[in-house]
Amino acid sequence: MAEQRVGVMQGRLSPRPSNRLQAFPHQTWPEEFAQAKRLGFSYLEWIYEAERASENPIASSAGRAAILACAKASGLPVGSVCADYFMIHRLAGGSPQTRAEHAAALSELVRWTRELGASRILLPLLETSAVGTPELVAEVTESIQSVCPTLDACDVVLGLEMEIAGQDYAAVIHGIGHDKVRAYYDTGNSTAQGFDIAKDILPLLPMLEAVHLKDRVVHGTSQPFGRGAANFTDFFGVLAACGYRGDFLTQHYFDAEPELSAAHSLGFVQGQLRARKAA
């Protein structure tokens, strides 16, 4: 049986931004392909964010060609795209015209993602883009449903990331009602909300597309793996027991030594997977 893929979030192999944990690495993105490959990661998750969006290589044909060239030279593909852009350009809230424009931008990102050979987009519905009322859920459902024909045409999955209880999370996905809209679960964010991830994941297992792995304290910030409150031992046990064979993506805490942090994070995940296989 093939080993499960473990990818790394773009930017985790570059100097950390001074004011936040995650940002597109405009100056160093080409080097991250070879770095990630050397460390043993299976793929890279590309970041598309609102800040300087037009300067992101994914947003131009020449830029996408450059991305593909780096992927080919390094032997490391872009496996997915993190669409942080839509935390600002939201798919719920605002006028119907604005929502339609943002949904059209998501359809365009789906086409760019397919051009890179990636099969998945992470859509964060949390923090500034959270859908905490029935009205917002109805609006985001309408927006995403309008993108579904493009998902079908491009054979791309839209993985929703949310910070609500698993049962409610699953209900949102069921309400959208399309097989290419699935769950992209984040262990750290759900832990920070006070959920036991080994139990919280259960309603999402039938629709689980991929997992973002990070450790956080309850109601607090990201920590290196093993120093937060995430119940990884039971979480990986649940996934193994149900036969989950999808991807994992490290979105780990890092600071002054990005490569060392990334290597530690990959080792932690591989150790969890080996332990479940041996059990």
Features:
two-stranded antiparallel sheet, 279 residues, 42% helix, single chain, eight-stranded parallel β-barrel
Explain how this protein is built.
This protein has helices spanning 29-39, 61-74, 96-115, 134-154, 166-176, 187-192, 197-200, 232-241, 258-278; strands at residues 6-9, 44-47, 78-82, 120-125, 157-162, 181-186, 208-213, 215-216, 222-223, 247-250. It has 279 residues and is of the alpha/beta class. Strands 1-2-3-4-5-6-7-10 form an 8-stranded parallel barrel, surrounded by 4 helices. Strands 8-9 form a two-stranded antiparallel ribbon. Strand 5 (157-162), helix 5 (166-176) and strand 6 (181-186) form a beta-alpha-beta unit. The longest helix has 21 residues, at 134-154. It is globular and about 50 Å long.
Quick gist of this model?
The chain is α/β, with parallel strands linked by helices. It is built from 9 helices and 10 strands. Helix 3 (96-115) runs parallel beside helix 4 and helix 8 crosses helix 9.
Strand order of the largest sheet: 1-2-3-4-5-6-7-10
The backbone outline, from C-alpha atoms, is globular
Distance between the termini: 16 Å
The SSE order reads: EHEHEHEHEHEHHEEEHEH
Structural class, by secondary structure, is alpha/beta
Helix content: 40-55%
CA gyration radius, whole angstroms: 18 Å
Main beta sheet: strand number and arrangement?
A: 8 strands, parallel, barrel
